[in-house]
């Protein structure tokens, strides 16, 4: 459950108080499930689908990851933002969409030396 965004719509319909449930959107999971977030047009379509299924008002966090896997592979393998198939410019564009720009970002980086980790965080803060 949860790969297909329609699962969230079904879940919300089953709840007595759906407004109490909030979601985290993982960019790598979305891409590996088959949602293309690599172009502006596809990002807009994806955001519309998020709104129709889970509701943008219910979105509380973006788990910002790239992936080395192909779109639709259904393989959960995170990569440093900009070091995978989604790409830095696409991720930057995505998190800066007006519907998403207010959301906090959570990174899941591999174990790296502190200076490398800090450099990645500094780059993303500049977005």
Question: Which helices and strands, and how do they pair?
Answer:
Elements: H1 6-14, E1 23-26, H2 27-33, H3 40-53, E2 59-64, E3 66-67, E4 78-79, H4 88-95, E5 105-107, H5 114-126
Parallel strand pairs: 1-2, 2-5
Antiparallel strand pairs: 3-4
Describe this structure in words.
By secondary structure, the chain is α/β, with parallel strands linked by helices. The chain has one domain. The chain has helices at residues 6-14, 27-33, 40-53, 88-95, 114-126, and strands at 23-26, 59-64, 66-67, 78-79, 105-107. The strands form two sheets. Strands 1-2-5 form a three-stranded parallel sheet.
Identify the notable features of this structure and list them briefly:
13% strand; 127 residues; globular; alpha/beta
| Structure annotation, total helices | 5
Mean pLDDT, rounded to whole units? Answer: 94
Strand order of the largest sheet: 1-2-5
Characterize the biggest β-sheet: 3 strands, parallel
State the domain count: 1
Low-pLDDT parts are: none
How many DSSP E strands? 5
Overall spatial form: globular
The rounded distance between the terminal residues' Cα atoms is 32 Å
- SSE order: HEHHEEEHEH
- The gyration radius over C-alpha positions equals 15 Å
